[in-house]
UniProtKB/TrEMBL annotation:
It is found in: Cytoplasm. It catalyses: NAD(+) + ATP = ADP + NADP(+) + H(+). InterPro entries: ATP-NAD_kinase_N, ATP-NAD_kinase_PpnK-typ_C, NAD/diacylglycerol_kinase_sf, NADK. Keywords: ATP-binding, Cytoplasm, Kinase, NAD, NADP, Nucleotide-binding, Transferase. GO terms for molecular function: ATP binding; metal ion binding; NAD binding; NAD+ kinase activity. NAD(+) binds at D63, G64, N138, E139, H164, T177, A178, Y179, N180, L181, S182. Belongs to the NAD kinase family. It comes from Candidatus Sungiibacteriota bacterium. This is NAD kinase. The keyword Kinase applies.
Amino acid sequence: MSGLAFKKVAFYFRTEVKAAKFWENKLARLLKKRFTKIQILASNAVPRQKKSAPELLIVLGGDGTILEAAQKFQRWNPRILGLNLGHVGFLASVRNPKNFVAGLFSVLRRKYRVVPHMMMRAVVERRGKRILSGYALNEIAVQNLSGVVDIEVYVDEHCVQKIHGSGVLVSTATGSTAYNLSAHGPIVMPDIKCFIITELMDHSLPTPSLVIKRDRTITVKIGGFRKSGRFLLQDTKEPVDVMLSTDTERALALRPGDRIIIKKSERLVRFLELEKNYFFKSLQEKFAFR
């Protein structure tokens, strides 16, 4: 069939989810039968080289699975078609399984809109040395797991928040409907490129979230906190009281004096949108907006 949008396609899903495996088998069979020129790559295989990367990544699952896929494949920047097998599915392109086949065929016939989503890059400095860098599509969280921590938040060189509480959250517009929403932060349309700074359980006078332009630099400075030694990081077994986390990818035990520098990443995640006002329809389903 001529005029196909993509030549290389891959599936990503969590193997323990039976519905995802069912849909992978069904859609792969349809692709092989109807679109014979498409190369179907190995499922869940993160490529090491551009030549083995998919142009279209079909993700079967909820928002957590889609977020995980976006993180793992960000280097190769495929277009992502999310087929929702979770709840509402803010990141999904198709919410209802009965529309999966029609949605996939629409994409292969170029009937879609690409919606670029901003990512953030975080660099952690300790005593003047860089000890970690990572990317986030949803949020970068700093939080004390069992107490309070003193934090100063700067936009460029200006201090905008002093927090004595559980922590602080820096989100993108994409992440505004995730942890940020649970922390009573604002909902922002996902194609708006910005930062959202939201405090977590401040023991001082609460301050509202701040929406910051994408070209600014945010610096989070870690102050004092009480060490309890109650928790260990799973990977390193290092004791952790105040933790940095970036989406589902990274966790780091923080120390007093650490600085987290957050900027807009040069990388974008490209989601496919098949129906107009999809985001607002998702809000209607989630919150019964009228």
